[in-house]
Amino acid sequence: MPELRQNIITRDWVIIARDRSRRPNEFAVPRAAPKPLPRYDPACPFCPGNESMTVSEVFRDSDGADWRVRIVGNKFPALLPDGETERRIQGIHRSMRGVGFHEVVIEHPRHDLSPALYPAADLARVLLAFRHRSRKLREDPRVEAVIIFKNHGEAAGTSLIHPHAQIAATPVVPNQIRRRLEEAIRYFDDTGTCVYCQTVREELRARERIVCETPHFVAFIPYAALSPFHTWIFPRRHCSAFEDIFDSELEDFAGILHEVLLRLHLALGNPDYNFTLRSLPAREPQRDYAHWYLALVPRVSRVAGFEMGSGMYINPSVPEESAEFLRSVTLPTQS
Amino acid sequence: MPELRQNIITRDWVIIARDRSRRPNEFAVPRAAPKPLPRYDPACPFCPGNESMTVSEVFRDSDGADWRVRIVGNKFPALLPDGETERRIQGIHRSMRGVGFHEVVIEHPRHDLSPALYPAADLARVLLAFRHRSRKLREDPRVEAVIIFKNHGEAAGTSLIHPHAQIAATPVVPNQIRRRLEEAIRYFDDTGTCVYCQTVREELRARERIVCETPHFVAFIPYAALSPFHTWIFPRRHCSAFEDIFDSELEDFAGILHEVLLRLHLALGNPDYNFTLRSLPAREPQRDYAHWYLALVPRVSRVAGFEMGSGMYINPSVPEESAEFLRSVTLPTQS
């Protein structure tokens, strides 16, 4: 029998289609043997030596003469940092100038790697770059929200192979983010508890959806996962904004994110995925009810008319089985 | 300069990325010359003569010995009509049995056609089947919402070529649908007006986003279209539920939907698309603030991490230009 489950954070219902669910390993990507990628591609704008192919560098983490992480302007920006946000209201139509930032984080000098494959220590440098740049962007009074996200692979919306993430800073608080805050406030008012802290506590007690954990973080498949292998990484410490992560937590965060990505890579054969850091709007101070986290969605199933018409997802997998499958992956011995 | 626009119905902001927008004709699907499809496929479960390959027929529109439209059970149903909905609450986790209906509407006997290509009169029979079946499903006390939708093409989530749509009946009011009602109530309380009626009025006054119109319906690109060629078809008459469409309006609705699909087909080269009928939850009576409509989304651009992390869409097209392009399509003379 199928089961409906409610996501306590968004209030969205998901259909866990047990009867049409596939075994976890059946979500592995059917690919021809991947052609090995070159370490360097002379045509790639993100490869070392081709820096002149990118525009307006705003951050560089260097190691002697070589860079390790760079942040540059997006060549096709969705938002531009020019002038003031001007709101217009005409009848029922509300608009504003598309003021904001849209940047690319070049994660690594190597063309052929992805975060699952380069060392966790290198991923820590990427997260440090995220924190640095996001803090700066949040200081701009025109910025209401900073969205940090990664698209890995074509199904996830990128055609550029070189490992990169993106940062967008918007001049409005997106409705989705505001809605989640409202739900978190309601839960806090009803129970006196942060709904995210409560979620971590209950997941650690139940254990059946845990993928892995570290001293400061817990990775798990949400109870009402939207799609197969949808994964959340929550900090154990209550903290509203990723930008306020402690130095002492950054390496640990890189470690668990690296482990989750590596488990997915090995379990499903380098699936395409998106991840995003769900943090507090830029103008909000720390809140007792708000708690940042990372959400990861492998692109192994498709969204269609039912999801469009209802906002509900049909998940053809069982969260507990997916978590068990990811836990069972044998990791290579650290070299 | 990019522009942000707010969807008054959902309150979601969309980025209209003018600077990276493509010309309307650049969204045409780059395909090899399509291989002609057979009128009949002996392996297709939806072709006439293969009725035994489908399960539990619940509706048949016949013309003598031949059927014109059939509704059958989905072979891989996401919801099942067995027993009672039972709610369980355990800590923060809420679930219920996946009780509901999930059916397939076989739109036409011909294997090789789609609604853009078969006659509008045949589409009217499909809409009549939608209305008939949805009315029946809404009588079931376990049903809270009926979602009628179509996935056309692989990018839209179907691999079956034979023209078909789907009907799902859920035992909860999906959160997305409830949210939109809340917004519509708020608008009504503030202004005394249905926000959908107001939208039709303003679009007819502005005209620049109109695709086509008929005595009873108006088709237009939303001011804050989520993606290229996102199209809405609104009834002019205030009516909360598609299920309450008059007989006298059905043919007209089929005519405008057919025309919109044909314009898209000719303009973009048979793009994949989803459409859904946005109607009132099953247990609600007619409401002054609620107004049904059809939403159509061609799958010509991709959703990625930014949309996931913010709920905001980046639309690489300008709604007014898309509407003009669709208006300029030359329709074949009616035979």
Brief sketch in words of this structure:
2 copies of one chain form a homodimer. Chain A is an alpha+beta fold and 335 residues long.
Detail the topology: elements first, then pairings:
2 copies of one chain form a homodimer.
Chain A (H helix, E strand, L loop, with lengths): L2 E4 L6 E4 L38 E9 L2 E8 L13 E4 L2 E5 L3 E6 L13 H20 L5 E8 L11 E7 L4 H17 L3 H12 L3 E4 L3 E4 L10 E5 L11 H22 L4 E6 L14 E6 L6 H6 L2 E3 L3 H9 L8
Parallel strand pairs in A: 2-15
Antiparallel strand pairs in A: 1-2, 3-4, 4-7, 5-6, 7-9, 8-9, 8-13, 10-11, 11-12, 12-14, 13-14
Helix pairs in contact in A: 1-4
Query: Which fold does the CATH topology of chain A refer to?
Result: HIT family, subunit A
Termini separation of chain A comes to 46 Å
- Kindly provide the radius of gyration of chain A, computed on alpha-carbon positions and rounded to a whole number of angstroms: 20 Å
Spans of at least 5 consecutive residues with low confidence of chain A = none
Total domain units of chain A: 1
What CATH first level of chain A would be assigned? Alpha Beta
Percent strand of chain A: 15-25%
Please give the order of strands in the largest beta sheet of chain A.
Answer: 3-4-7-9-8-13-14-12-11-10
Largest sheet of chain A: 10 strands, antiparallel
The named CATH superfamily of chain A: HIT-like
CATH architecture of chain A: 2-Layer Sandwich
List the helices and strands of chain A in order.
EEEEEEEHEEHHEEEHEEHEH
Structural class of chain A: alpha+beta
Largest interface (C-beta under 8 Å)? A-B, 73 and 73 residues
Percent helix range of chain A:
25-40%
